[in-house]
Amino acid sequence: MGADTNLYRSGANELKTDDNLTIGGLLTVQGVSAELTSGTASPTFYISNASATDTYDPTIAFRTGASPTTKQSIWLDDSDFDKLKFGLSSATYPVLTLGTDGYALFEIPDNSATAMEIKEATNSYLTFDTTNGAEKIVFGKDLEIGLMNVDADSGAVNFVNMDISTSAPTSTVESLSIALDGTAILTVYGESSGVAGTLQNARVGIGTTTPAYLLDVWGTSRFGSATSTQVVFGGYVQSDIIPYADNSYSLGASGYRWSNIYAATSTVGDLVFGNDFRITESELPAVAGLYIQNAVGDKLMTIDERGFVGVGTVTPARALSALDSDSPQMRLAQTDDSSYSDFQVDALGNLTISLSGDEMIIPDDNLKICSGGACPAFAGLLGNGNLVVENDVFIGGNLVLGDANTKTGVFAGLQATSTLATVDISGVKGNNPVVRRVSVYIDGDPGADTNVNCRLGFYNSTSTTENNLITDYYFNLTYTETDGGANAGETTDTVDATAGLAKYDLIRYLGGTAENIRLVADPSDFGLTFTALAGAHNDNTGVARVAEITNLFQLYDADGTNTIHAKLENLSGLNNAVNINMIIELQ
Question: Quick one: pLDDT at residue 242?
């Protein structure tokens, strides 16, 4: 160190200079600062023990360029509790501030550039974006806050997942709420099942932190739609859905209709259809009924509180009542209106049934015509398919009966009390034949007045013993002799002066019931057509009387032997011999 230098020793372990000192062109010491150069006059960084604003702010500055400008600085801020700061310069915001007490601060300048990013290799973990108008924090990976995870992958199953790793007593509430100004808006709710990692009663509450259902909305709710019309609901959604305003919205449309509506109990007003047909409530006091009306309000059908249905009437008197002044009032049709039966009730209450077909059929049942209310019990019906008339039957045309087989018996020379004969009717029309008619009459001229008391029995045996009796009939046959050229105008004759016939009674016993039957004249043929007795009669001729049974009855072959026989018996002695004929029609 020569005399031309300002570098000298100022004491032990101390080297001083009174001016700037340059060492090998790399280090220049200027007063309170030092610069490290690159071998030229352009320093890379400098070290200063003070700044322009503070008395003691040591600074390390890094500079580049042909005309060096400071790019980054590290300084100790004497005016800020000696905090160590990193930044562009002490005149700008520091990016990183470290305090002597462990304090740390990151600051980002307000500009349009990406100010800070944390990466692992080339993978971005955290970015602070200060771009004007789009400031945000970008997480490149999952964000875990305590036990809550936010998945960064938009395709993840759990977008937000808050793990509960510790067990809690059963039903302990474990929920996550989003609140504004202390008011919970949305709550994700669950309850502990008592086992760590499992949950029960998972629910979502809107406007409530204690949802009772999977989705519990407390308060008025509005649902948007594909059109400008919105649906608004208010009230207690649990018990009923209340429109926000009367008639404020439509449920469904003609093009988008509900397939089915299921409800345990529904209360509605009128139901109006697209063509203005409607179902309305009854207007009658104390009647809980329904009307079906047309577009002009005519009540077409009524269902009252009893379940009675009225067509054309609002006061049905029966389970089904049809009221219409047009005739007929009701039609039953098969497939279309080409095959039908019409029912008409006139002003007097008479019923007319009009058929497009040829027959009115009552299969496997009886048709009963009675006067008054209930029909009396009719004994002796032969199964089903019977026509029963309580009073008279008037037939304007012919009465045609079905085919029948006949059995006849001719019993000649009857005089003493005896069994006349038997007629075998077994196998005729089956084992259980129906007897449609029995006629018994005196044949020929006995020559004197004759009265024959008879019994006709039907037996289920060849021997015709009484223990096999099915039914029997008691009657008498009478022959009246005429003389003196009597005619219908003479009152001294034994012939009835009015009808030309003598009248006798046949007493028939059937099931314990006595019945009077008029005797008729000797038949001129099997069809029982009789010659009227009017005018004169020849001497020594008579009028024969026929006993006839015309009520149907069936003979049952109870033992299946197929041995049904008819037996005619004479119950009284006769003064002269007579001939008896019998005809039995079986069906």
Answer: 53
